[in-house]
Each structure stands twice: as C-alpha cells, then as structure tokens.
Design brief:
The structure holds two protein chains of two kinds. Chain A is an alpha+beta fold. Chain A has five helices and three strands. In chain A, strands 1-2-3 form a three-stranded antiparallel β-sheet, with helices on one face. Chain B folds into two domains: about 15-255, Aspartate Aminotransferase, domain 2 (3-Layer(aba) Sandwich); about 260-380, Aspartate Aminotransferase, domain 1. In chain B, about 45% of the residues lie in helices and about 15% in strands. In chain B, the strands form three sheets. In chain B, strands 2-8-7-6-5-3-4 form a seven-stranded mixed β-sheet, sandwiched between helices. A three-stranded antiparallel β-sheet of chain B has the order 9-10-12. The chains are: A alpha+beta, B alpha/beta. The interface of A and B includes residues 7, 36, 38 and 55 of A.
C-alpha cells in the first residue's frame, strides 16, 4: 500500500518533537477527521534553521510531516512556502489516492507556521 | 521475526483437516452434484453430508433448513431481501440495530431507499447491547422482519437473541440473526434461540473462504435472489461449490468436537490480553461488554493516537491486527460501531481490534504485551494531542 520511502519516514520520523520558543508555529487539522499536525520553525536571516513536527494521524500523515520538515530545513521562507502537497507526495514516491488529503495537511501546516512567523515579526 | 496473527475476526487459518477433506473433490470426485452419473452422485452425497454437519452444529431440526451460499454477506442479503419481499403482505417495516455489519446495514438501506421499506435502526448502550425494551417498542403491526446480529464483529458484544426472537415471534415478525462471529466459537442452538433465519460463514471458523449458509426455519418462505437452476430447493440457484461446501462441513464437524474446552482456552487468553493491556498502558478504553463478549475478541481505544499508525507499527513487529479508524475504513469517518457506543470521533480513531483463534498461544499474547506499550508510547510522543502529566 505504501512506498518504501513512506514506511521509512513513518518508522524513523525526522525532526519529530516539540520546540521551545519557536519563531513561528501552527497546528492544523481536526481530531474528528483523524489528522492533526503541528509544525514549529526557527528562522534566522530569512532561512528555516530548525523545524519540528508532531502528528496525530495515519502512516501517510506522519510520513508527509516528516518529509516536509526535511525538505523545508535550510530553505528560505519564500522557498519553503512554495512546497505543495504534490511535491511532498512525489518526494515520498507517491501516496495511495485515498491518502492525498493527508499530504495537503503538511503543506498547509508549514504555510500557517510561516504566516505565524511573519505576524510575530510585524 | 516471530509472526502473530490476531485478526481472526477478519478471517481464520483454514484448518489442515478441512483442506484435506476438500482435496478429493477437486481431483477425483469433481462431478456436478446435479448430474445423474456416478461422479455427480458422489458429489451430491458429499454436499448432503455437509448439510447434515452444519445442521448438527447449530441444532436445526432438518438439514433441508440449511441453504448453502457464497458466504455470510450473501446469507444476510438472502435473508433480509428474500424474507422481506416474500412476506410483504405483513408490512413494510424492518427493525435492525445501528451496529450491524455492513452486509446487513447496507442491505436494509437498499430496501429503504430503493424498495419503499421503512427501517428502524435501534441504538445500543455503551457496551453495545440492544435494549430489549427498545426492541419491544419498535415492533409494529407492519414489522415484517427484524435482523439483529448475534455478536458484533468489531467489539464482540453478544446480544440477547433469545429474548428478541421471542418478542418478534409474538408479533408475527420474521427474526434473522447474523451469527457469523458466533458459529463455531460458542455453543449455539437455533431452536433454543427461536430464530427464523441465521447467517454463518465458513472462513470465520477455519473453513474455506467463499462459502457460507443461511438457516431458514422449515415452513418459512423467502424470495430467491439468484435465478437459474433448481439447486437448494429453488432457493439459491447456481452450481454447488462442492469443495467449499465440503470444507464448511468439515469445519463444522471440527468446531463441534470440543467447543466448551476451546471456548474456555480462548476466554483465558482474552482475559490475559485485556488485563495485560490495562495494566501496562494508561488511558485506554475497553470497547464492548466486559463479560458478554465473544471468547476471542479484544478491542481497545488508545487515546491520542490513530489506529492505522498503530496497525503499521504492529505489523512491522510481525503482529497482524485491525482497527476501526477512518484510514482503515476507506472513509473519513471512524467505525459506525464505535460511534454508536457514544465514543467521540477522536477516540474512535484510536481503536485496535485483536481477535484470537484456537491457533494462538500464551506466547503470542506475551509478545503483544511486550511490544504494544512501546509502540503506544512512541506514537503518543509523536501526537500533538498528548500532554504528559
């Protein structure tokens, strides 16, 4: 059902955990539909220097969270905000069609965290 | 890696003796039971022997009360659609429960949406039991059929079938029960229960897949839904699945041999597993009735985590289980059964069903109890919903 990459990220999630004093953070999703994702970022000189996630959800939700943190780390916030569900899914060698909504969540969570960073800065 | 199969509610291992009994009907006695020649006669004899074994297991009065089908789903469809249609002069009302298997629920919905029947879906209490009083109140003059499962496939809760069937009979209402999870695992007597129809499935108790049966009490009429030859006394056309039917018969014979001992052994493993999980893991909810439950069913919700993640993690440790989470149901909603118990969506997403069979051992349970707490802890650490004290 899942690609090897999905199972790898599910088994050994990258950047999983909480962050103290993040520069930006967001929690999205709804426990009612079974997916909640929290992303926290540290930003230095416009670049994402640290990123952490926590996820309540299925294997795809965990893997997309893990993958987006890996892809966003080191990128400028402009670059990172261009990450889409499609690029995340492709980086994981695809997701089963019924799971595509999960990867939407990861990109949304990161974008919300970036928005939160921008708001805080103002 | 040690592999532990704890998804016996989904399907069971075919018993080697069942497979052995089936083999000659593939290779030597492969005739069509409807044929006149010796090949056909041998096959027909095997089919009728199996019918007698099914009759014995459920204590029907006459083996002709057994109609072979392709499985539990077909038996449910035949009973509900066939029973409601053939007795429509009684009325258009059907009673069922909110926690039935989809083979029953979707069949009732079909009659409701496409055929003009009205259906009452009875609620259940927090353990998953239908209240006898609710059932009594729901019965109407025009209630043609009631269908209540003998035991729930997800949470294992047993229903008071005898009491419900008696009320239905007083009212002149046909009573059907989906006993797919009970047959072969617990003693069962259709005459004592007083049911009119009962569905069973071979692969749920070490028989082959693709074969089941409907018990239809003598003298009752149903409309067939398969049209064709005169098989099964014109109640279910189609060439007999001789090999499957022989396998089902053998599974019934084996099941009947020592149900009380096997039941006792399963209950003991079940209680060990339930106790172990409750002792080792915080914030868990046992779903279903603590005592009135299937001997091999364990179902828990683990708060703050999602079922599919749990299944994947267990699978990587060689443990096969199932869940009622949305991701495993193919929709965005978790199991209708868990929601009917009054659980929130959030909690229902974290359910785990472990179902045992006679092939499971104490070591299997120990293995689960060794592995599961660590998996739950890891997934909770990952969950933004979990706050450590």
């Amino acid at each position: 059902m899942y690609s090897e990459k999905v199972m790898d990220h599910f088994t050994n999630p990258r950047n999983m955990g909480t962050m103290e004093n993040p520069d930006g953070e967001a929690q999205i999703g709804n426990p009612t539909c079974g997916d909640v994702m929290k992303i926290a970022i540290k930003v230095d000189d416009g670049k994402i220097t640290d990123i952490k996630f926590q996820t309540f959800g299925c294997g795809a939700a965990v893997a997309t969270s893990s993958m987006i943190t890996e892809m966003a780390r080191g990128k400028t916030i402009e670059e990172a905000s261009k990450l889409t569900n499609k690029t995340i899914a492709e980086a994981l060698d695809g997701l089963p069609p019924v799971k595509m909504h999960c990867s939407n969540l990861a990109a949304d969570a990161l974008n919300k965290a970036i928005e939160n960073y921008k708001e805080k800065k103002e | 890696m040690k592999r532990v199969y704890l998804d016996n509610g989904a399907t069971t291992r075919t018993h080697p003796e069942v497979l052995k009994a089936m083999e000659p009907y593939f290779l030597e006695e492969y005739g069509n039971p409807s044929s006149v020649h010796s090949f056909g006669r041998e096959a027909l004899e095997a089919v009728e022997n199996s019918r007698e074994k099914v009759r014995e297991l459920i204590n029907a009065r006459d083996s002709q009360e057994i109609i072979f089908t392709s499985g539990g789903t077909e038996a449910d469809n035949l009973a509900i659609i066939g029973g409601a249609m053939a007795n429509r002069k009684k009325g258009n009302h059907i009673i069922t429960s909110a926690i039935e298997h989809h083979a029953v629920l979707h069949t009732c919905q079909y009659l409701e949406e496409e055929m003009g029947y009205s259906v009452t879906y009875l609620p259940v209490d927090r353990f998953g039991q239908v209240q006898i009083d609710d059932f009594k109140k729901a019965l109407r003059k025009d209630t043609v059929l009631a269908t209540i499962m003998a035991a729930n496939n997800e949470i294992g809760t047993l229903q008071p079938i005898k009491e419900l069937a008696a009320l239905a009979r007083e009212n002149g209402t046909l009573f059907h029960t989906d006993a797919v999870q009970v047959v072969g695992h617990m003693p069962l007597d259709v005459q004592e229960w007083g049911v009119d129809m009962l569905s069973l499935s071979g692969h749920k108790f070490h028989g082959p897949k693709g074969v089941g049966a409907l018990y239809l009490r003598k003298g009752l009429k149903i409309h067939p839904h398969m049209h064709g030859g005169a098989q099964e006394k014109k109640r279910r056309a189609s060439t007999h699945n001789t090999t499957g039917i022989v396998g089902l018969g053998k599974a019934c014979e084996l099941a009947r041999r020592n149900i009380p001992e096997k039941q006792k052994a399963l209950v003991s493993l079940r209680e060990k597993l339930i106790k172990g999980i409750e002792e080792k893991i915080d914030e868990v909810i046992l779903n279903g009735h603590p005592k009135e439950r299937l001997p091999g069913n364990v179902n828990f919700c683990f708060k703050y985590i999602e079922g599919e993640s749990l299944l994947l993690s267990l699978d990587m440790q060689g443990i096969a289980a199932s869940s009622g989470s949305a991701c495993t149901s193919g929709s965005l909603d978790p199991s209708h059964v868990l929601l009917a118990l009054g659980l929130s969506h959030e909690v229902a997403h974290g359910s785990l069903r472990l179902t045992l069979s006679e092939f499971n051992t104490e070591e299997d349970i120990d293995h689960v109890l060794e592995v599961l707490p660590g998996i739950v802890e890891k997934l909770r650490e990952m969950s933004p919903l979990y706050k450590k004290d």
